[in-house]
Amino acid sequence: MASKSPTARWISRPPGLTRAERRLVEAKNRLTSPWASALALVIAALWTVPTFGLLVTSFRGNRRDITSSPWWEALAPANWGGFSLANYETALGPQNKLGDYFTNSFVVTLPSVLIPITLALLAAYAFAWTEFRGRNILFIAVFSLQVVPLQVTMIPLLTQYVNWGLNGTYWVLWLSHAMFGLPLAIFLLHNFMREIPRELVEAARVDGAGHVQVFLRVIMPLMTPAIASFAIFQFLWVWNDLLVALAFAGNTPEVAPLTARLSDMVGSRGSAWHLLSAGAFISMVVPVAVFLALQRFFVRGLLAGSVKG
Amino acid sequence: MFRPTRILAALAAVVWLAGLTACGQAQSTTSAPETTTEAEGADAACAAYAQYGDLAGTKVTVYATFIDQEGSEYESSWAQFAECTGAEIAYEGSRDFEAQLPVRVEAGAAPDIAILPQPGLLRTVAATGKVKPAPAAVAANVDKYWSASWKAYGTVDGTFYAAPLGASAKSFVWYSPAMFADAGYTIPTTWDELTALTEKIAADGKAKPWCVGIESGTATGWPATDWVEDAVLRFAGGDNYDKWISHEIPFNDPSILESLTQMGKLIHDEKYVNAGIGDVQSIAAEPWTDAGYPIVDGQCYLHRAASFYQTNWTTLDESLVVGEDGDVWAFPLPGLTADSKPVIGGGDFVAAFSDRPEVQAFQAFLASPEWANAKATATPQGWVTANSGLDATLLKSPMDQLAFSVLADPGVEFRFDGSDLMPSEVGAGSFWKEMTAYFAQDKSAADVLAAIESSWPK
Amino acid sequence: MDLLLHPESPGDKLLLMVIAIAIFVGVTGAILGLLSLPKRMPRWVTPLGFLAPAVAAVCFGLVYPATVTVGNSFKDRAGQEFIGFGNYVQAFTEGQFLIVLRNSVAWVVLVPVLATALGLAYAALVDRTRFEKMAKTLMFLPMAISMVGASIIWKFVYDNKVGLLSEAYVGLAALFGQQVTAPQWLMNAPANTGFLIVVMVWIQAGFAMTVLSAAIKAIPDEINEAALLDGLTAWQLFRTITVPMIRPSIVVVLTTVAMTSLKAFDVVRTMTGGNYDTSVIANEFYTQSFTNQNKGLGAALAVLLFVIIIPVIVYNVRQLRKSEEVR
């Protein structure tokens, strides 16, 4: 697990950790009571069953069955004939041009994740490891901005974007998502950055490293799990965003993301659950894939050996 | 410490650069589709469009609520206009239109043309002073092809802004002709007959008379307000209806209470609702889009809904035939007497935020019978207009023809959907909410009306 | 110019994206390069260089609009005339306001506590198990589903005809020989607010789990090992080592979820439309600002959101001070 992480080579680690880890796992398995396992199982079930219902629903061919009989009745072998791919075929059909919207979503999302993480890492470093007057007040002010509802920003920001002639372009989407993601990004990353033992940073400083070197060589490698966890969420918010896209870019095929298309598929008369359920799963595939991919970076033991005593 | 002035200076530089790029860009995007030899071949078809002049190289942006299938029907309705005049019509549809439009207008990003789904929104955006009064050509078309009351809906404080576009007639009761024939029921022509029919169906006991559903997501309750308006127009009368909407009489005037009570006798009674769905409370939970379906299953006989409900039947089941001899059909919700024809309806309106010649030409086109005919041709079902210049034979579905005949009938006592004309605090707020509470929480009619009255903005 | 502003083909769009990223990387690199110049610089230059881009961005994107909003909250519905505290008075005297306030407080207390507790328990339970990845993905799923998707999912739980909860209720009653019909879960206050809160907890627990899991993994193994050698049970290890070690992360998660659930209105809006006494301040804010186009009152409600969250911010300040002393 941990020992395979490419970032781990930055840290001196005592030999035999893997063995120690294995021992820990054994100890844990020995100590974990059946009650705890049962609890984990119950939580997992509670969290999954509703979604599973949606999955079943999305394969039910008959639109009327969806609202007139419970979804689990479709699971009875006698009713298996009712399953079909029709909803997915309609949702993915060529007239919906999901491919184009998929590109748009991708183009919107990647910079909108990269930019705030980078800026937040820099800011979090300043808050955690440099000294200046008013540091705490500024930090509190920044993370408190999380409470600002995005809706209040729409008119002031769009007015500026129109003045610049940039409304309806990708540029304002990147800028907006980056700005809106920053307070939480700084808050989360600062928290993880402060957990890094002071000795590590000070040792590097004594060796003559400037702040930039400390940031790049010491801090960044240790931040991998934190970056991965924030990246997942920023990705998710941008990917699932509809509000920012509609307000600043509009619902045109040139820029509108997948969510705008899926939301339109419901139709102006509403309650097309058969399409909605299929659409919800289509839009879910990418975030879940990203989550699975980034889990690799949720590594243990990056700080191993760095703590004295 | 850092100096904010530097940041500001840097920001200003970015802004300035952005402004430069934007200016350079503004000239390059307004390229319209080329009208080449192909267009020359279509000269004959273009004769009708000669009056709009040569608009080659211009662009008109249009913003509306119509999306998906509906949106492309609109786009094809003006495709010929674009081809013949050379103007590019850039259409954008959004379900979020009503929240987004005021934001865009205020931020200076208003479209050239917005199709407003209700007159209340016209008043809101007109208050910003950014809506342009309708040009003479539009006013001439509206004077010629619409009734004076329709023009009045597009007028704010004496200025005529917005020509009507589409329309709907809402006072219909859907039923199954076959079920009526089997049971020997006849179409009621007065409210008393409707009440008698309701009682008879309940007494026969095969199914409940009514099915009702008012759930509509964030707009839950609106189908109930249509019911109330129909009752008010009948039991309080047209004059009181107008005064009720303009708040010259209080919302809980005794005549309104009487109307709501009469409505409640039909659909706020366990004996008469809510077939195959549940009790009175279930009315609030049942999506309006699905609420008529029990008719198809023989679980209820009557469902009051607008003409545009016809598309809901075919969404449910493509094989359903809407028509007098089909699976489902509708009769007008009767008045108090057989010769009165009170009808509630709605419609959308075209507002312009620019007075460039190509925008005004397009506005005039949308108010013309040519556009109405083109739209009728492009629409399989579910669209009508109150434009009397429309060639009714172009309407493809029998229900649209019925709705058009109602809208065009001078003997009809037509009133615009009241909730669309009231201030949005009421018409899109307390009226919906309190009607929902009327069914969901068994709130009394008097309490419901009093609560709405107290929410009327002072 | 068209490529930079209005790319048409997918290829052009991707190219534009690459250009944008390149510009961003270039600018960031330049800032870091300047900061690492060997010259002696005044002490304030480094923090400034690290902070300026982020602070400038939030000033423009959030502080400036928030300031405009505070200003608007003292103006009339069109945002023109100054009317003092009129909007606040109206907000507080509105008939439903006490219910709305009560609901908002319930949301802001219950959602973070429940979501964090469940997320923490789950993260600790599945940590180092063979099924960890799979198990974590299951709890993460709700986060990945769009709001529209989530509202359909829960419709199929709460619906009184085809809902899972309704069936379970009827089935359970049948076990005891009772013949019942399921109630309309979302229509009966105040329990319905609880049912809506469950939906939000269901969504937010995945966030808590992910962040806390990253924090648990940051605990050096030596510490755990030493504790186990001392003979601590798993529960004691969790209580005396894990929780205290990740305490700052727990505070961060509680705070973040509190702020998210305070300003979230889509659960309420999509599931009950604010009917049946389930409305929250954020929903009222949206209604006033967009449906009613009452800018002043909408702005006042947005300011109230901030006022409600102040205790949470104060709590964070205390925590910050405390940990400052420890260092």
How would you describe what is shown here?
The complex is a heterotrimer of chains A (about 300), B (about 450) and C (about 325). Chain A is mainly α and about 300 residues long. Chain A has 14 helices and no strands. The longest helix of chain A has about 30 residues, at about 100-130. Chain A starts with 16 loop residues before the first helix and ends in a 14-residue tail after the last helix. Mean pLDDT of chain A is about 80; it is low at about 1-15. Chain B is α/β, with parallel strands linked by helices. Chain B has 22 helices and 12 strands. The mean pLDDT of chain C is about 85. The termini of chain C are far apart. Chain C has a single domain, classed as MetI-like (MetI-like fold). Chains in contact: A-B, A-C, B-C. At the A-C interface, helix 1, helix 2, helix 5, helix 6 and helix 7 of A face helix 2, helix 3, helix 5, helix 6 and helix 7 of C.
SSE blueprint and pairings:
The complex is a heterotrimer of chains A (309), B (458) and C (327).
Chain A: H1 17-31, H2 34-58, H3 63-68, H4 86-92, H5 98-129, H6 135-144, H7 154-164, H8 170-194, H9 198-206, H10 211-222, H11 224-240, H12 243-248, H13 258-265, H14 273-295
Helix pairs in contact in A: 2-14, 4-14, 5-8, 5-11, 6-8, 8-11, 9-10, 11-14, 13-14
Chain B: H1 4-29, H2 37-41, H3 43-46, E1 59-64, H4 68-77, H5 79-85, E2 88-93, H6 97-107, E3 113-116, H7 119-126, H8 136-145, H9 148-153, E4 155-156, E5 159-160, E6 163-169, E7 172-175, H10 177-183, H11 191-204, E8 208-210, H12 222-235, H13 237-245, H14 254-267, H15 282-285, E9 300-304, H16 310-316, E10 329-332, E11 342-352, H17 357-366, H18 369-378, H19 398-408, E12 413-416, H20 418-421, H21 424-440, H22 445-455
Parallel strand pairs in B: 1-2, 1-3, 8-9, 11-12
Antiparallel strand pairs in B: 3-11, 4-5, 6-11, 7-9, 7-10
Helix pairs in contact in B: 4-18, 8-17, 12-13, 12-14, 12-21, 21-22
Chain C: H1 2-5, H2 10-35, H3 45-72, H4 86-93, H5 97-126, H6 132-144, H7 147-158, H8 164-175, H9 191-217, H10 221-229, H11 234-245, H12 247-263, H13 266-271, H14 281-291, H15 295-326
